[in-house]
Amino acid sequence: MFGRKRPLSDFSAELEAHLVLEIDRLREQGLSEDDAGAQARLTNRAPTSTPQSCAVPV
């Protein structure tokens, strides 16, 4: 479990799936496609936007 390294593509696919789900949820609430995409990206930021103080050492 801890020794296994996942390819970056696995993480990218997982993040994209979460983003699509959030966009769909926001669209159901009445947001336009553009607004839903923008809001989803703001609320579901990629791990690269995590402050260094929160990062787990490798």
Task: Write up what this structure looks like.
This protein is an all-alpha fold. It has one domain. It has two helices and no strands. α1 crosses α2 (33-43). The chain is elongated.
What would a concise description of this structure say?
With about 60 residues, this protein is mainly alpha-helical.
- Tally of separate domains: 1
Tally of alpha and pi helices = 2
String of helices and strands: HH
Straight-line distance between termini: 15 Å
Q: Helical proportion?
A: 55-70%
Based on DSSP secondary structure assignment, what is the total number of beta strands?
0
Give the integer mean of the pLDDT values: 79
Low-confidence stretches: none
Radius of gyration: 14 Å
Strand content: under 5%
- Inertia-based shape: elongated
Main β sheet profile:
none
What structural class results from the helix and strand content?
mainly alpha
Please specify the SSE layout and strand pairing.
Blueprint: H1 8-28, H2 33-43
Helix pairs in contact: 1-2
What would the keywords be for this entry?
mainly alpha; 58 residues
